[in-house]
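From the pipeline queue, job 12 of 40. The input is one protein chain; the requested action is below.

Action: predict structure.
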Amino acid sequence: MRPTVRSVHVASSRSILMKIYSLSATLCLVLCCHLCVAQQTATTETPQQELQRLKNAVDQTQAQVDASQQQLSELKKSLALLEQRLAAANQAPAATETATAPAIAPAAPAAETQERQAMQESQIATLNQTKVESESKYPVKISGLILLNGFVNTSQVDNSSAPTIAVAGGGTTGASLRQTVLGIDARGPTLAGATSHADVRVDFFGNSLDSSYQLGGLLRLRTAHATLNWKDTEIFAEMDRPILSPSQPTSLTAIAQPALAWSGNLWMWSPQVGVSHTMDFIGSSRIAVEGALIDVPDSPAMSAALAGTVSQGERSRWPGGELHIGLLGKKDSSGLSVGAGGYFSPHKILGGRGYNAWAGTLDLDLPLSHGFDVTGGFYRGQALGGLGAGVYKDFVYGTNLQFAKPLDDVGGWAQLKKRAGLRWEFNGAFGLDNGFATELRRYVLPTSAYQNQARNQTFTANTIYSPKAYLLFSLEFRHITTAPITGSTANTNIIGIAAGYKF
């Protein structure tokens, strides 16, 4: 049976001690022999001869003593090293000692065993107070952002606490906690050399009623991810923004719907399954290639008569496809990053008529000097209501749905960010979503403010202050201009404040 580390250390220590004892005995024996020889020859030698002989004997003995002293020093160093190893072995995990000690060592005394068990139970109790236990026993972390938003809208908007379009009418003032976000992150087992991870985010923006205590604040799924990560490759299943739109503007007052939503920001959270791979390129730059299948929802403004019980993408029986290629900066996230993407998804409306949705995109992330950074995204396509564009529409139609024509659309957004130290951040952004007016005036039946929309643009500027890593405060100004197909253009100014606590 293989000996344990403890037994090897003990045996080595005993061997060193035996060597020390043997060396000491040898030294004593040498000295005694020299004395005996000196006594036997003292009577036959002259004083000069005896003096020379004794001097030689002393020199020889001194040399032997020096050699013995050197060996003794080396043995002491070896003994100290073994003692350090023995101390390290005593601090090894209890599971290792339990697996090896019973085979070669006698059982510990009952009192020692009870004391060790009590200590382990105390440590387990402490851990249970500081961790979240999961069914799989893998680590789970709970995080979130408790967010209070106050708002002043100078004229009517579609949603007072999270506005996206302007509507003719009176303004509103109020506050909301419904943009609070809760999250769960989990790390799982290693599979085929890949680490696994999953997370989910929810908020309380589950319906459009802002002031109803009874009905407001229903839990709503925002995003979810499950990934397998190798060194340069990732396989993912997620509900998130399309991979065509990797960046988004910064805001602490627009969380339920991201900043510049329906004003040039492709953001709609959709189910996706895909793979991404990163490879080295010229110098320190890299290329990232992503591909995914996506289940695109209908635009939220589509009426039940047009949408039916399933989405138009699902009715076509074919998923949508996405591809994004990005030239990334350095591995420390510095340097210019640019990307291009493509999207295609077949759709079919009630009655069997079909059309195709598609888009071509460009995105940019350009770090500048002195804490400035420019980001943006641009698109051109048709039937983009399911991605958060298309002025809330996928297609235009005639009376009784005798035809369905996908709506052409163009838009995008750009943001300038300035960081001032670790506490302050300043952002200014502009976004535009523009449908083709000739198509809209000819076909659309404007039955609601969303369907009557031809162009929507938003300008926003905000400052975010973080006195501590877990505290956030923000002041934001937003101006929304909405141009309808028929009627006058509506404008609104929005002043928002936000206070958030991260945990």
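Job complete. Residues 47-90 form the longest helix (44 residues).
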